[in-house]
Design a protein that fits this description.
Layout (H helix, E strand, L loop, with lengths): L6 H6 L4 H12 L10 H14 L6 H10 L4 H15 L1 H13 L6
Helix pairs in contact: 3-4, 3-5, 5-6
């Protein structure tokens, strides 16, 4: 794992150092590095799950991360539109607002 890529440490390292360590080493250092699914596919799955569960606090990071992993804005928009019929209009509206406000994550 890249020394620069420590989102857990950046987000929660001072308050919850063990959770930050697990986030960086296990989630991003192991799970995201498995090769059965591409990082692009993992990003699509993650954005869909966060949107469907209305976990909007984590969506901005993962929208940008998805773009970094090769998911285009039109694809993210299509994902949101498709999921509106499964997860509800409010989750779609929130996701669109976050996508409009987001810029590709600088990691």
């Amino acid at each position: 794992m890249s020394q620069r890529f420590n989102p857990g440490q950046q987000a929660m390292g001072e308050v919850a150092p063990k959770l930050a360590e697990l986030t960086d080493q296990v989630l991003f250092g192991d799970i995201w590095e498995r090769t059965v699914l591409s990082k692009r596919d993992r990003s699509l799955i993650t954005v869909a799950a966060l949107m469907a569960m209305n976990r909007i606090e984590q969506l901005p990071f993962h929208l940008g991360f998805a773009e970094r992993n090769g998911v285009t804005r039109p694809e993210l928009t299509e994902l949101i539109t498709h999921l509106a019929f499964y997860s509800g209009w409010p989750t779609a509206a929130s996701a669109v607002n976050l996508l409009q406000a987001s810029k590709p994550e600088q990691i």
